[in-house]
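re: ur question from earlier - yeah i can do the single chain one, its not a big deal. heres the input i used so u can compare w yours
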Amino acid sequence: MLNTINPKYLEKSTITQLASDFQNGFPYKHIVLDNFLNPEFADSLYNNFPSIEKLHKHYKGLNENKSEGSNFEDFDPVFSQVRGEVMTDEFAKWMAEITGINGVFVTEDKLGTGLHQGGDGSFLDIHVDFSIHHVKNVHRRLNMLIYLNKNWKEEYGGGMEMWNADMTKMEKMVMPVLNRCLIFETNQISYHGYSKINIPEGETRKSFYTYFYTPLEEDEKVKYHDTIFKTKPTDSTYKKVGTKFKETAKNSIKGVLKGLGLLK
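and the output i got, formated as tokens:
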């Protein structure tokens, strides 16, 4: 039983409509689901969201400033509850019905589920995600983000920006408000990220992430690459040059290590 999800999203007629909406998503396949979880459950996640210090990974560099963690043993049990639910066969079937991607599953590691969080000044530059799980060798297909920000104001920024394929225009922005779920296909044109946020003391940008995979078939022409960051037309020359150099070097090195079986 999917006990945490808003029952309306489990109705057959709703699933049919969501499947159509997903296929017609622009600039790439996606859907936005408001009030995704039962309200009391969403409130519980918000009220028990761990501090940034409790998350294991902290990134602060040229293209990102955020924290994340999948150390669920350190979180309130309510997070393990939603983690357990999104990893069930029943949820995978629901996801497949909506997206048309069969055989999806979630890995039992940090590249499967976890939490994202960012304080004042947090940002995540526009990027496409890694194509293949570097350890399990499975194909990354979908992202699901459940936002957990109560009373979030537009002036804070932090909306998920969805850009076109040639990175010339932002086509859509999804604000990270409480209990809003964003599901989108991950591919070579699914450029996304969020600009630097400006938030009051004590506030953070919070989300629960889940990444879905399918087995990598022998005849699939999917090449491994790590996350690829891109710059916006308005970025400085320094950032454009620095990002291109860093991303080229990073993906070249990681590609070699992956081929040698040394990437862990």
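The mean pLDDT is 95. not sure if urs matches, ping me
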